[in-house]
Protein 1
Amino acid sequence: MRPKRKRAGRIIFLSGILVAALITFLGNKTVVKTSTNDYCASCHVHPQASQSWKRSTHYDNPRGIHVNCVDCHLPPHGDGYLFEKAKTGIRDVWANWFKDSASLNWEAKSQIDYAKRHTFESSCIHCHQNNYPLGLTKEGREAHLYYEQQAGELHCINCHITVGHYDPDRRHAQNVDFGTAESEDAELFTEPGIMDGFSDFTEQIVGSAISFEMVTIPGGTFQMGSPENESFRNEDEGPVREVRIDSFFMGKIEVSWGEYLAFFKQTGAQGKTTDTYLKAANADVDAISGPTPPYGAPDQGWGKGNMPAMSMTPQAAKVYCQWLSKITGKTYRLPTEAEWEYAARGGTSTPYFFEGDPKRYVRKGIRNKIFGIDTSGINTYINFAENSMARTVHPDEVPANPFGLVNMLGNVAEFCSDWYSPETYGNYPDGIVSNPAGPPEGEEFVIRGGSYRDGADRVRSAARDYTQTDAWLKTDPQIPKSVWWYSDCFHVGFRVVCEYDEPILNE
Amino acid sequence: MKPTNRRRFLENTAIGAIGVIGASQLIRACSSEEAGTTEVVEPSFLTTAPDGEPLKAGVVGCGGRGTGAAINYLDAGPNLSIAAVADVFQDRIDKFRAELKEEKNVELDDSVCFVGLDAYKRVIEADVDIVILATPPYFRPEHFQACVEARKHVFMEKPVAVDPVGTRAIMAASKQAEAAGLCVVTGTQRRHQWSYNNLYARVKAGMIGDITATNVYWNMGKLWHVAPQSGMNELEYMIRDWVNWTWLSGDHIVEQHIHNIDVSNWFMGKQPVEAVGMGSRLRRLTGDCYDNFAIDFVYDKQIHMGSMCRQINDCANSVSEHITGSKGIMIAGDGRQHIFDTDANVLYEYSSPVDEAGERLENNPYVQEHIDLVAAIRTGNQIVEAEETAKSNLTAIMGRQAAYTGTKVTWEEMMGADWKLGPEGPLAWGPVNMDKTVPIAGSAAEL
């Protein structure tokens, strides 16, 4: 029996080796086969994947080199390649079987925040080993010096996002032509709009064909902030205060690209950012100097006209108001936070100006995660994360609130003139607060209303937020950084208010 | 006892502490060690550069320092030659050639001597391996970038720039040189001085404990000036009188005091984060520079560097660095190269090594820079000092701006500032259109 057993042992041993070799061989084959561009493209059939790749410099370049999907979207071999591949594989197979590709928001997934998660910096550096290659421009050298000082805070694709997937609407360069190509066929206004008592009026920008609606916001008192039992309430929304607001006018829509570009064209400056800003900040100077050309594409190619202007800084928005006041003979300014909330509520004290419970609209909690959310109530009123496809919308697409204001909630978040503090409401003196204007000083400005990026919890009437100067200028390579345009923030804009001052009107 | 002169010393190629590791490699090796350890890593130096393929150098800027640097370079080892020179003035080139003939018996052909504002390009185009940059620092960023792009090794004098824009250009070009395998040595020669390296090794080994403060000084009498002469156009006058003009020299805190500031940064292993200071122009005769500065630089963790520099006759003088620690103090300069404990007992005094014949070996740091450069090129142990020097350069500029403006100036501002000195547009012989008012800090009250 013994020899037989020995033989059997040998057979088992040999077949073990054979099976192991086969597994290794097939495993390796599988890894190779599932790492080809064709294999990736068999599921990623949307144009954001293969077509944009073929127009990018990673495919279409003078050297004839093709950089493949896995070269960027997986880390280098030996640096977690197989682990990431398995992880990505499981997720993609799941998505392919259980999700409809057309329903996925590929637009949003190609935004920088998401793209960073699926593009490995170690892979960029694996090929691009020298940050100062032969022939690099002066600007390039300065930019890479800056990148190296921001250790860990910047990803290569913060600036080079289009190298793998071409996108004509994005650019990382000074955009000198921005806003100058718009045609103006219509007749130009020679007189500003007329404010006739306290009723809605149309403002006209002299020297342009641009006009916009200003609606009356009759003064009154309201409860500012949110009650403690409101869903998703943050601490900074309280304590609730009774606030009195005087009458004023407010822009029906967020300041549009049409309006903002009229300002840009009439005042835009080519000079050094610091110089022009200092001039603009000085009220004695007759001529108001406006923005310098932006770096990158502030409109993101989403359309201009009545689409909301965005990515300007609060300082730029304030200079816009100064300029608008000067050319119209009225007093335009940013709303205070209290005016903004009063206007957004339109007499309501609920989370939104329409009926609806934030709990039903937010992907939080076990119930919503399992059964999904029903956003049919909120979808008609607000352009927010669940329905925006990661973009702003035209104001015609949403209904107005009780005061006749469009897009107060969602679309772009809006600057207020107040400095932000989490303790603002509690710090006001006791009793009814009259026309409050926030703390006397601060570092960041209040923004309100939430944007196309925010979930239903962040687009409530009471939700507060604030600017993030450093983060929103992260990839501006200009020195000094622009005081006019944010390089890394496209979800903030503003709305103007016009003061209603009876004695002046009667003169 | 035989007199030891430089040439005699250089003939002793096989003696003394010889190693192939240059100073900067040594520094790199030391800087990774934590203070508090006790083992001193003894520095070693080559006393001459190793032989190898012939190396040809071009010289840009043939003034006093350019001439000196060219001779120092030729003294550094075998098979080294000067192949081309450039200056903006013919008389400077003539003087350079005469000096080189007398000192080194080297003659240059007319065809390799170039005159003009862009003559540096001819030198780079000539068949040279190394370029020695010794013009006023205003020109350095442009010249250095051109050298790096042409893949030349570089020796360049301090300062390396006069403004933040220029300094950052040096930093970026330095990284470019590093990536391209080039060797760059700068004229902050204390880092190539045996005494300083021995002191450094002991401070790093914890002899004075943790550094708690530094004080650095360059207080001396008036430097030279050139009086305006008829027949000179304004640009020519300014360049001939360059140490007195901020746009050309960076002012004396940058032009001269950078040496001492660099020692503090070297021993600290970093640069200050902010500066407040004062300065004025009391007795300078020409130009727009100040003649005294007193700056309080602050490193992170609230370690201060007290910095003073003055160029006024008949005042108290000092050219020295004091590094104070929890257990003692290092003092270099004014004839001292000591480490004392907190009771002023000597813990260490540097003395130069002795050769086999019992003669003291003296280290000429100006030659040592070139020995280290040539050794790095010939051995392939790359050395690039430009970024490190640029950091000390920008520290000095930060101090200057603190005095000029009276405000607190931060490192972060320096790294982001768009200040560029000098006239707008390309330089041309003739009048120089720029603001020449001397800055005055703060604002005046009404009487």
Protein 2
Amino acid sequence: MTKYWRSLDELNDPVAFRKNEVRLEVDANRAVMKKASSSSRRDFLKTLGFSVATAAVVASCKRPVDKAIPYLIKPEEVTPGVANYYASSYFSGNEYCSVLVKVRDGRPIKIEGNDQSTISQRGTSARVQASVLDLYDDARFKTPLKRGEATSWDEIDSYVTQKLNQLKQDNKKVVLLSSTIISPTTRKVIGEFQQKFPNVEWVQYDAVSASGILKANELSFGKAFVPDYRFDKAKVVVSFGADFLSTWLSSVEYTRGYSNGRKVMQAGDEMNRHYQFESGMSITGSNADVRIPIKPSQEKTILTALYYQILQANGEMTIAAPVSPVDLKDLVEDLIENKGKSLVISGSNDVHTQLIVNAINQQLGSYGTTILTDVALNTHQGLDSDFEKVVVGLKDKSIAGILCWGVNPVYNYPNGKELNDLIGGAELSVSFSDRKDETTAACHWVCPEPHYLESWNDAEPKTGHYSLTQPTISKLFDSRQAQESLMKWAGVEAPNYYEYLKNNWSENLSKLQTKYADGRLFWNEYLQKGVFDPGKESSTLTYTDNGLANALNLKQAESSDWEIVLYQSTALKDGSAGNNPWLQELPDPVAKISWDNFASVPVKWAEENGLQNESVITVNGMELPVFIQPGQAAGTISVALGYGREVSGKVGDGVGKNMYPFTSIENGTQKFWLSGALVNVTDKTYELALSQTHHLMEGRPIVRETNFNEWQLDPKSGNEFHFEHVDDDITLYPKPEFKGHHWGMAVDLSSCIGCSNCSIACQAENNIQVIGKEQVRNRRIMHWIRIDRYFSNDAENPEVYHQPVMCQHCDNAPCENVCPVSATPHSDEGLNQMAYNRCVGTKYCINNCPYKVRRFNWFKYVGNDEFDYASNSDLGRMVLNPDVTVRSRGVVEKCTFCVQRIQEKKTEARVAGRLIEDGEIQPACVQSCPSGALVFGDLNNPDSKISKFFENERNYHLLEELHTLPSVGYLTKVRNKKA
Amino acid sequence: MYNSEVRGRLINGDKKFGQISQEILAPIHRKTAPLWWYFAMLVSLSMFGFGLYAKYITVSTGIGTWGVNNSVAWGWAIINFVWWIGIGHAGTAFSIFLLILRQKWRTAINRAAEAMTVVAVFCASLFPLLHMGRPWLFFFIFPYPNTRGPLWVNFNSPLFWDFVAISAYLLISASFWYFGMVPDFATIRDTAKSKIKKAVYGFFSFGWTGSSKEWLRYEALSFVLGGIAAVLVVSVHSIVSTDFAVAVKPGWHTTIFPPYFVVGAIFSGFAMVLTLVITMRGLYKMNDFITDSHVDAICRILIFISLIMGTAYLTEIFLAWYSANDYEQYLFFHTRIFGEYAPQFWAMFIANAVVPQLFWFKAVRRRMWIVFTISIIINIGMWFERFNIVVTSLSRDYLPSAWASYSPTWVEIAFFTGTLGMFITGVLLFFRFVPMIAISELKSVAKFDKPNNGQLKPSEHE
Amino acid sequence: MSKMKYILGVFEDEATLVDAFEKIKAKGILPLEVYTPYPIHEILEGMGKKTRITHAAFFYGLFAAVGILGFLTYAAAIDWPLKYGGKPFNAFPSFIVVTIVATILSITLLTLFTFSARAKIFPGKKPEIFHDRATDDKFVIVLDKESLGQNAETIRSIIKEHGVVE
């Protein structure tokens, strides 16, 4: 029998290793048991957490249960087999999201959106959804480390404290280098830490910072802040290279606002118009009504022209505006028409560009309406220039110590290699990172902090909006919150950040409200809700045109040669979650490529040079695989950041190429494009994992679209085929009747932006396995809900369509008839069921499904060293959802409409003796859709939202001419082009 | 009483009955087989072994080792399945149709044809079994009483029909073949020298003596089996065709399939018979029994069938155009005729509809090596037909986002090679241990020309 | 058994055998049995035996068809009905195919058993061989001495016309 081992220690000395494991667990349990004597709910939960989790996991992989603590007394609120939801907050990679954590038998297994939040408004992003898997990442540190060797907290504490004091005496500078910190309580801790050690300087460093905006606003408003953009209020949205639906600033919030401004269901509904100027095809660009491909070097010129033309339109200026490379007439008209209802943004990190944008918004009267200056977005506070100083300080040894907290400059700083040595060379270098990364590898000391699902914290993502983070499982490993480390080193004997946080809230924050006099009640209330919105505290700022003249005068040299644009990919964003297999396997929403970053090249150039997808080009000597991207601006190549991790773990290491070294620091801000790059064609090829290879609809009525003005005239427009079909709808057998429920789902194609949040949500909910690059390339990806992407019209600047396709649960399902062993019959509630244990794998159902939504388990994906991703270790398997079977090799699987959730709610309703309310049941994909494009409900209930959707003139069914009678409806895509 | 005006005697050389037995049984009575036999056996067995290894990989690792994917979920396995079944058709078709048509000349050939059938169907049956994700659960397909309700199987599924049809076909054709051999085994028993042969064949001959009682019932039996098997020949491949015709796929969902498949099957079957028979003639000097006129007859039939095939292909294309169905049109005109899979399509068309037309020329029909080559070409062509049907329809169906291409892996190829090896092995054993020609039947027709010896036209080509 | 009880007429070919057979029958004597390498219809008719295998087969078919169709309907529509692709539980057209094929199968097997039972043809049966070339190239008539009585001589002479007496 094969001997599986999880680490060299185990291989060399399994007995000792096992013993050690057991000791760790027992210690953990004993520790919490001690506390549990007071036995509050959460303490008990913690106790049960790890033990039950271990048990469940061990059981789930068919090995005898070695340790499980039986319930002697049933803990309050905990019923085995019933999930609990705890409100918490996600903040990582400058992305904030208020979430609900689904805890099942002590294990967090799923992240849901929190509808209490006024910011993320129940939406999440793929990255948030996948963050639960990071909790169970093998690459996390199990103990504190000293130069890579396991050590004890005491040793670290004694050394670091002594060292800090010594440096304090020698008056040598120490830098606390953190990513943006939005937690007021943490700021308090840091403040106290700095009081104790005045020589400590606190610098915030963001991989992809908003320095440009911060500095511009410092000039325009006298305060370095990111304003509150209100996309829901905007009638005209103009974005210059800002991918605000996917990665820019607070994308989930913006997605919600943006798509709310585009919902056209019945007459009278309004729709915003969206202009996008960009080089590569981003998700945002793919949804734009008007998309104009430009070179990054043109951006400022166009903005300047736009500014002058608006001035002219406002009659404030007489001299002729400078010529713009693109025609701005329509745009200016729209903007002037919608003064105060328009919003202009730029993704550029260049101060001058942002100054011009500010000026334009000022001219359009956006401030106070679509851009609020009295509320600041706190998620991006790092200033690139500050970090420059740190680098200098490290070089000239004026900085003797560095404490790295949630930052990875060695990886994502342009000259990271150099930093590696500088940090290693510092007298004191500590990392608080919870898992492997390049910077931590350079640090002498590692004080692992727990994952956010294991820790206490709070957040103020926006001025006047607070939220809490609470642990949902007891610490899996010997970790300690960075705050506690700082407190400890600042001299607190037994630091307890939980108490500290609780006090801070019940004493200080509770003053912001009047509802609860008692601080503890206040605390409990908002701990349960997760969010606390006492409202504004700061006041509106007034605009001044400081530095504008200068900005306008500085002409940007327009280059004729190659310009390389570096963007954050939807899946990995800045690359901090590089070891997350779910994100690595998530196909890029536009290119449909996973497991790599690639060079998106313009179609025309590719044709001229006889390039294919998967050919290889060199950019400044770096070899990159080619993807021919329709809509890529001529003379530009886009490549994603966030790949090419070297120290991240077994999954992420060596996936793609690291593009951060291509960035540069220009007048104090990091620049994410470069011009004059050397691009050479090679005759090499490199295999890419494409999950979709044909990009045209071939004139088939798959995605049906119309334009807003046509829709206003006739809501049926674009959907004629459907009504044709309804008219001559004849059938041999009578249409199936469903007594009781008849579940259905609707997809609003003009709301869906293709962000792929649903794919990952589904993956987390339904235990969908990761299969790796080679198998994705073999077209065997397992995602139950895939998002088809089509291009149409001009290849140079095409229209893009995103269409989520899940099992359509046809009432005349072709797949059901052909299964010889009755493994996939139809339920009484209109669900197309799949009995895994009955399936013998003839695959006929896969063939006969016109939508190709059925997935086959070609290999054994769980516990198989060939597929060493999430499900090949006890730890990784802790994320599995016990309500959903883990499919064995050789069976077919597919979307079930989350039947386990349907059953759960039905039981609840039955127990409570009531009917199921509309919208009560929400499949994973629907629950957290940031744009609210998905609707689920009972078609037999005439008042349900879903029924309304199905009655809507825009509704049609995919391939309805086949008469498969799908239970999924699609609403035509509506664009808002200028008539 | 029997008479054959068309053709003269069915065997050449005025042979005594004893002589017939001796000549046909010679290979069996010989102590050792010729050298080439052992050599061929070695080759085929090694192919078979290679196949076994592929099967081991398939079962132990999973069908992920094949080239199939979530869009094209059926590949070589199903292609080869249909191909083998098609070949397996010849035997029964031969015996039955020619029996019904009172074509006495079949007697010299049907034994070989039926042997081929049994082996081919057996090869075929391996594919559906092992292309399953969990072959060890294949018994789920039996509607056996169980404790799950009892949960029965899905009688709407063409795969279930297929399973019934194939197993029935295997059983029936095997017994048909075997009972045809019983009298001959008796002959071997009575003519054999060695004790062992006597004992062994004595056992297999079921104590046959040739008494009128036995013959009487024997005739009745073959009458019944013949009648039934006639239905079977038509039904089996029609059912195989429903594996595709019942689906919603463009290129599959068509009513022309059942006849088209049956004819195709007989086509490939006859081609294979031709291959086999010519080999027999060559290797065992059986020209006197399997005369040129036999070969000639089969060639003529092939011309006819090939015309039908051509018509079928054109009909399909015409209907794709005439139906004005976008999906079908795209499949036929942008994928098959011109497009990614054009080579396979044209290989099929030329090999099946064009090349066999050469048989119009007597000169071609006479030259055994040409006939042999063409018969091989037809078999290849028929393989491509199945490739066209199975793969192209799946790789270009309704949603372009799911379009995927397919190419086999070495495992699939080895699997196929294995079945080829198995087939050849089977045939070699047949040559060695079973009378290749139905002796008793042959004897019954050996002296047709007795009554009208004078007017006998001399056989056409000598 | 001793061959003494019997007279064996051994002939070289079909025609002579038939001729002799007719003559013997004309004498009002029915040979005990006739052994031939292949079926000869005059003999089969002449021996005046009938077989009802064909009728049996017909009834097998009838019952099998009814039984199978019955089972399918019971299993699919009554015992455990399941919804498949919007079809009614009793999807009769789907059942036809299986019924036909399964019927054919049962007819074949049952008929085979009947045959081997009635004709006593089954594995390992000990054959009673009167003449070991009867399956090869000789045509043999077997007569019972007792039954012949006084016309034994005439019979012998009839046989001798073409064949040999053993």
